[in-house]
């Protein structure tokens, strides 16, 4: 007899045989499967000093040609500039490896297959990241670059140092010379204008706001853990809990600029932002475009400084939007155009991608308009230490640190509570253990929680906003197709060793005497725990004896 | 700047630096790290026709010498007869790979390092498995061999065919000639006796009992998923839900044999069984020894047939014990000695290994006598189909199959209920959908459960015994060090596609038209879902528009 693996073949309703998502090694992404286009193309960089910018939006025929090239590409391998190792990703969150980070082959392929100037952008963007970001960053997606700080770094700074701020790119990183940069203000404004960088910096009253930016995908990994095992099909980055950061942003409010244009026309309801980066949807390139409702004009900063320094290319130099209270995806980087509209942006980022569906919606039935466009984020929080899977040696109290944040307007984190037992008991974090309250920013916390119990413990945290909204209990309470907005209570499991328990102190002393390490916890103990006499006595006492006496 | 992996170093209380259990690739076990002993040894096979049996129990000095050899072995590599591929293991239970099955290096090493006749036993045992078992078996541990049937096979047969019956070995597989086999009956009996095979088979009234044997580790994987990520340190097999099987066992009751010995002496409370296989604990060999309380004498069969056929070597030929209602570990295979005692067996299998601790007990504080010796199993059940992670296409009802079992005496499965929503609604399984009630066996079930909902659904099952005991809700309700007795409600997640929903039927027709497969579910849909006009209309209707009208 021979033994082989049993695999699970399934015939889907279209009669196609598929291998069901299998619990196998994390797949590395496919190698490029098409060659570089070597014909002549009309699309190019058009503005001097604007490297990495192609004005797709203004040339629909360029977009169409690019799509045709990608649709009809020859099946021929070209080499990716990224290796799986570059995207290697130290999973601090989950004890089980879900994915090793995403190499970003799919998006690199779009750029490289089109050839021309786009060919080098993935590799160039990576070089920019290496210049601008700290080497400790965890790479979640190599291209477009998505990276988050470590848990330890997140809780060190209420104002995140620029090199540690999370990055969620959607395409390449343009390098735009501030001297040639120009901002167009148009659409449903009374007097369309253009503004140069020096004018923006010196010609208007400036404002500095402390704001947390957060990706709507933060903590996505918890939703992925609930899903079908198709982690490699989910093209969105497998963020843990650090896809957020806080900075002091300086610039001019959007309201000021709109006033400079003589205000809005009556029909205007939304204001669109254009970013110079290139973004693809179904093989079609465009610039990065989203909008915000006009009620956010006064809060929104058209920013050129981040924590007192000019923006780096990675964070949108020379100028970006910062929309406090909204997900980061609305804070457009490499901003070059502002346009007032009679409806929200119809560009795919906002209308097809950052959508929030109910649990019952999926590939089998959703339309884009069944989801709603994600703006302000709900109350959320996460434990940064201890780490999931950590063996915690303590004397009856475990120190827990983390962050809490809420989006929206005139709303903030009011209270944080930590539970050492999965949500049965909740210990409040006092005001002194919470960082300062800002209008638009997170609060960090550090608290010691009574923990008499030993063994595997489920620690969890919940925050409350000023209106007493708190977080759902379980990940699946908010599971949604596309796995956005994970704000259920963040749970970690630790192995608790309470040194104030005499029997535990004795055991650790015994281990020390025998020269045995405690960890790994499940490594069998190579020592005698009791002699036969003691064991028999315990049987006679009734400790082990199973049968009743009478 | 350069980027590297962040690793988690930790200094334990003994000052030893350890890398915290990391979410990395399943480790293959260490290669052997010591050479084969080539000195002369006294231990050997002593009984003609009893290949694979060394009478360790009768020669304490042999045990001691073997221990000294293993303790002092030279650090020198020898090659394992097992490769990770042999233990490859198709995980049908969990969407996340926990471990790829265990190669069994640790136990093979004990045998091979001692050299002499033991050297070949691991490889020989593997050959016996290949002869006796079906090729579809899932190998959970190569040596000692642990294997379970597939989920599909389990629910096909109320009486499990012998080649599909689960196997939980603790050492090698002896090959014992029935003609030379002899059973000793001694200890606290009034007249010690010996019995030959023909005499056992023909000299006493025989009895046939239909009994399910179950490993106390069945469904262990669910507990492992809760644990620290130290799956490779847990030396116990990572069973899914198929470490059980039902057979019609034929033999002579233990009561009959004890009566043949003139009955028990008054002090006797327990009866020990000796198996001819070799088992190691902390480098020390012994034969496999456990006991049962005397109240189980009448239920217990000293069996020579399994489903009407003589036992195969894998299942204990020529004679084994079968203790209905108790975990399989008490049903000793290759039985050669029965001994009445004034206390439960003090051999390590029962006194140090098959123990059930509270959640609060662990390496940091437990003594063996803090656990109790596992005998009868509590009520349990599991879903065999659909499989976890399966995309289920249905018309509003999902067919669920599985098993339910309880141990104990005068107890059986009375009711089974299935929930399509994580335990909120429970649909009963009717008597007609349950297999026959036996005194000592499982019941299989098949039921259609109303399932209007789509997307990820949490299906779960619970069974009730005749005393209305049912199962705990969550795995962690019963989590215990050594991860025995997993009987919490078995949960699976499916992706439900309800074809009776018109919007879903429409979408599948669209996919078919575009030549697109539905799976993998998360593979992005490369087609337009709505045109701009439709989308804008939905915005104007208020479906997407976020701002209130007034």
Spatial extent as radius of gyration of chain A: 27 Å
Specify the helix fraction band of chain A: 10-25%
Q: Please, how many helices of chain A?
A: 10
CATH architecture of the largest domain in chain A: Alpha-Beta Complex
- Biggest sheet, spatial arrangement of strands of chain A: 9-8-17-12-13
Give a count of the beta strands of chain A, DSSP E runs of length 2 or more. Answer: 27
Shape, principal axes of CA atoms of chain A:
elongated
Largest sheet of chain A: 5 strands, mixed
Mean pLDDT across every amino acid position of chain A: 86
For CATH, the homologous superfamily of the largest domain in chain A is named as Oxidoreductase, molybdopterin-binding domain
- By oligomeric state, this entry counts as homodimer
What structural class should be given to the helix and strand makeup of chain A? Answer: alpha+beta
Describe the protein's architecture and organization.
2 copies of one chain form a homodimer. By secondary structure, the first copy, chain A, is of the alpha+beta class. Chain A folds into 2 domains: 9-373, Alpha-Beta Complex (Sulfite Oxidase, Chain A, domain 2), CATH 3.90.420; 380-498, Immunoglobulin-like (Sandwich), CATH 2.60.40. Helices cover 16% and strands 27% of the residues of chain A. The first copy, chain A, has 10 helices and 27 strands. Chain A has helices at residues 60-71, 105-114, 121-132, 151-154, 197-202, 220-226, 254-260, 348-353, 502-513, 532-541, and strands spanning 9-11, 17-19, 50-51, 138-141, 146-148, 167-168, 175-176, 182-187, 193-196, 207-214, 244-253, 270-281, 284-293, 301-306, 309-310, 320-322, 335-341, 355-356, 372-373, 380-385, 391-394, 397-405, 413-419, 427-428, 443-450, 455-465, 490-498. In chain A, the strands form 8 sheets. A 5-stranded mixed beta sheet of chain A has the order 9-8-17-12-13. In chain A, strands 10, 11, 14, 15 and 16 form a 5-stranded antiparallel beta sheet that branches. In chain A, strands 21-27-26-23-24 form a 5-stranded mixed beta sheet, with no helix packed on it. In chain A, a hairpin with a 2-residue loop joins strand 12 (270-281) and strand 13. The longest helix of chain A is centred in the first third of the chain and has 12 residues, at 60-71. The two termini of chain A are 53 Å apart. The model of chain A is unreliable at 1-31 and 83-100 (pLDDT under 50). The interface between A and B is large, with 126 and 124 residues. Chains A, B: InterPro entries: Expansin_CBD (IPR007117), Ig_E-set (IPR014756), MoCF_OxRdtse_dimer (IPR005066), Mopterin_OxRdtase_euk (IPR008335), OxRdtase_Mopterin-bd_dom (IPR000572), OxRdtase_Mopterin-bd_sf (IPR036374). Chains A, B: It comes from Dacryopinax primogenitus (strain DJM 731) (Brown rot fungus). Chains A, B: Its cofactor is Mo-molybdopterin.
